[in-house]
Amino acid sequence: MAVTGSTLVLAAPPASPASPVPARTPPRPQGPYRRLFALPGARGFTAGNLLARLPMGMFGISAVMMIAGQRGSYALAGAVTATGLAATALVAPWTARLIDRHGQARIAVPATLVAVLGSLSLVVCVRTGAPAWTLFASYAATATTPNIGGMSRARWTHLLRDSPGAHHTAMSFEQAADELCYMLGPVLAAFLCSVVLPEAGTLTAAALLLTGMLVFTSCRATQPPVTAGPRRGSPLRALGPLLPLFLATGVVFGSMEISSIAHLDALGLGAASGPVLALQAAGSCAAGLLYGTMRPRGLRTCLLAMAAAMTLPWLAASTGALLPLACALLLAGMATAPTMVTAMSRVHALTPEGRLNEGMTLAVTAIFAGIALGAAAAGSLVDHLGPSTAYALPAAAATVALLLSVAVPPSPVTR
Fold this sequence. Notes:
The protein has 415 residues and is mostly helical.
């Protein structure tokens, strides 16, 4: 302390050489998902992606409940939705090709408008008692719905083209988002159709699809550039060895769902079907997010794990108890997400440049075809051999997928 004129000055004593200097705490490293969504524009297009993806799990069950409730015929409802799936298998690859050629915003918005108008037409035709053929025509128009999951994956591939580790995390997130939307979508649709009004599920799904697509396509900065000039290579030819594998994987999904519903109904636990199937989807969602933080595995390794896991529900069904079956389905679901993430990564690697959305849509179409085939085959097995025996079909289909992986070109990922 010193006095200078009329000012009292307080001086701090010099630091002792022995006094420790406080060390700065190093910043905590960001997790892979935090780093992923720190990218400019990533949160915006992901929000639109999730809004537009949720209706994918709503349209089918909403149409069935609306048509069956108003027309009193599940046969008509099933035929209408089956026609819509067949139309999607034909139209979706062409829509995806146009998106790759002309850009996401330029094609996806008008294609979505056509699909939404088809949904609204279906509601009007069902409500007014129009002829049955108008229901088929209206629902077939929804086949123009763009593959929002493929477009989102294409954006991540563009943004992370120089970061394979971050790209793996992004693909894992996309698979988890698929599982989450297909888990919540049917639940939301069933609630709206049964509690609000029969048309509420379809109307809500159409509104979500249009809103989400507008948000998604408004994020222009993250849109993959359109490559000018002639396009070389055919995605169908390049993915030829993979498509049968996706078909077999779809059989796993479709047959597992029908087998579980039939088995629980036979036990007098039909009301538990929704929560038990949601548990399977939740297991896949959680496994997908976890897989995104880990080193990716080879495709055959993942398929081997899935084939082994698919035997668990078959074994658990023989006990005739709910708890073992629920646990088995949870574990089986956890094996599917890593398989799908790794298989989709092979799609990225094999698809010709500039045609990724078309390649992704071909893979999804093969899965949908497998789901339809698996559901039909499982239903036949349930009728002839009983619901417990039908659980052999998912296990067999997973084994077939493993055998088909021999024809897939080797992955650059270390096995």
